[in-house]
Amino acid sequence: MSSSALFRSLYIAYRILFRSRSRGKRLLSLLLTGTLACGIFALILILSIMNGLQSGYIDAIVEVSSYHMRIGNISLSEEQSEQIRALPNVASIIPFRETQTVAIGKNGRFFGYLLRAVPENWQEADPGMAKQLTEVRGRLSFGRPNAVFISRTVALNMGLLIGDELQLISLSAPKFSLLKPPIQTFTVAGIYETAFHEIDELLILTESESLNSDFSLNPTVYGIKLKNRFADERTAASLKKIVPPQAQIESWRSFHRSFFSALKIEKFAMSFLLSLAAAVVVLNLYFMIKRLVFEKQKEIAVFKAMGISPREIRLSFLFVGILMGTVAVLLGVSLGLLATVRFSELILFVEALFFSIPGGFVPDFRFFYDLPIRIDFAEVALIAGLSLAAAAAASGVATARITAVKPCEVMRYE
C-alpha cells in the first residue's frame, strides 16, 4: 500500500473518530477507551502488588529457610568445601545444624520451635540471609554466651524481651527421656522479622559453639547460596562430581514445591479474572465498530464510488479501533506505573477521602502503608501488547462486512 493510501485511511479514521456529529458516539468512544485504560491500570497495579508480596515470600524462603541448595547425609572435608566454593555459580557454603525443640514460656506454656545453629560469622558468610532478617530489637550478632535470635512473633507469644532467658528442650537427643530431657538456657540477644510469617513462627537462631555437649542436634547440613539461583540444575550436576554418591542434594525448587506452585496458580487466577474485565471492554469495542460500519454504509458506498479500495476503507475503520486501543494502553500503563511507584501516596489520598465523608466508615489502611511493590516491566509490556492486539483484532473482525457493501444498492435505497 502506498503512503498516500495509508495517509488517506488515517485521515478517514480521524474524521470518523473525532469529527462525528453524534455526541453520543463520541461519548461512547471515550467511555470504552477509559474503561479499557482502567482495566489495564488495575491489572498493572494488582500484579505489581502480587509480585512484591510473592517475591518477599520467595526471597525469605530461599535465603533463610531452604537456602538455594542443600547438601545432607554427609560430612564434607575442608578440601571438598573449597572445591564447592570454587564453582562458578557458588557464592557461599554455610554449615548448620537444626533440631526440633520445645520452649518453656514465662507462663509455663510450651511452644514448639526449630532451633538452627549457625557459625559465629553468619552475617559475613551469608549476606543474603542477613538482609532478610530485619532487626526489631537488640542486635543480631553473637556477642554474648548462649545468645539466641528470636522473631517478633516468638517474642510476643512467649512474652520475651532483650536479655530475658529462654529454656529450650532438644527433641533430637539419642537418649531422650521425659524424666531428664536435655535442657539448655539461652539469652535473647536480638529480635528479628522476615517477610514470611511461617519462618517467624518457627525459627530460632543460635551459635554452633554455644551449645552444650548433651544438647543434641541433627547431623550437619550444608546450605549453599548461588549467584544465580535459577541455574541450580547445572550447579547440582557439578556438585555430584565433588561429593560422594550417598550425599543428598536438594534444590530450592523441590524444598517448597507445593508452596511455589500455589503462588503461580494464585497469580494466574488473579490475572485471568482481571483479564475478563478487559475482554468485556474489547468485546464492546467490537460491537461499537460493527455498529459504526453499519451506520456508515452510505459513506462507505461514496468512498467506493470515488475509487477508494475496500482495503483502504476497512483499514480506516481498523485504525479507529487501534487508535482507541493505543490511547487506552498509553493512559492505562502511565496511570498504572504512576500508582505503583506512588502507592503510599495513593493510599493516603484514598484514606483522606474516607475521612472527608461525615459520619462515614473509615477502613484500616495501616496494612497497605508498607506493602511491597515490584514492577515487572516484561509483564507490563505483555499487558500493553495483548491489549493493543486485542483491540486491533476486534476491529479487524468487525470491519469484515465492509467488502459486502455495494455502492449501487446503497445509493438506490438511500
Describe it for me?
The chain is an alpha+beta fold. The protein has helices at 3-18, 23-65, 78-85, 122-125, 127-132, 152-158, 197-202, 232-240, 252-255, 257-295, 297-305, 310-341, 343-356, 366-369, 377-398, 407-413, and strands at residues 69-72, 90-104, 110-118, 134-138, 147-151, 165-170, 183-193, 203-207, 221-226, 248-251. The chain has a six-stranded mixed barrel. A hairpin with a 5-residue loop joins strand 2 and strand 3. Helix 10 (257-295) packs across helix 12 (310-341), helix 10 (257-295) packs parallel to helix 15 (377-398) and helix 12 packs antiparallel against helix 15 (377-398). The longest helix is centred in the first third of the chain and has 43 residues, at 23-65. It is elongated, with a radius of gyration of 32 Å. The mean pLDDT is 81.
Summarize this structure briefly:
The chain is α+β, with helices and mostly antiparallel strands and 414 residues long.
Secondary structure layout:
Elements: H1 3-18, H2 23-65, E1 69-72, H3 78-85, E2 90-104, E3 110-118, H4 122-125, H5 127-132, E4 134-138, E5 147-151, H6 152-158, E6 165-170, E7 183-193, H7 197-202, E8 203-207, E9 221-226, H8 232-240, E10 248-251, H9 252-255, H10 257-295, H11 297-305, H12 310-341, H13 343-356, H14 366-369, H15 377-398, H16 407-413
Parallel strand pairs: 3-8, 5-7
Antiparallel strand pairs: 1-9, 1-10, 2-3, 2-6, 2-9, 4-7, 5-8, 6-7
Helix pairs in contact: 1-12, 2-10, 2-12, 2-15, 10-12, 10-15, 11-16, 12-13, 12-15
Which sequence of strands runs across the widest sheet? 2-3-8-5-7-6
Indicate the percent of residues in helices.
55-70%
Please state roughly what percent of the residues sit in beta strands, choosing from under 5%, 5-15%, 15-25%, 25-35%, 35-45% or over 45%: 15-25%
Oligomeric nature of the chains = single chain
> What characteristic shape results from the CA principal axes?
elongated
Order of helices and strands: HHEHEEHHEEHEEHEEHEHHHHHHHH
SS summary, helix count: 16
Structural category = alpha+beta
- What is the straight-line distance between the termini? 31 Å
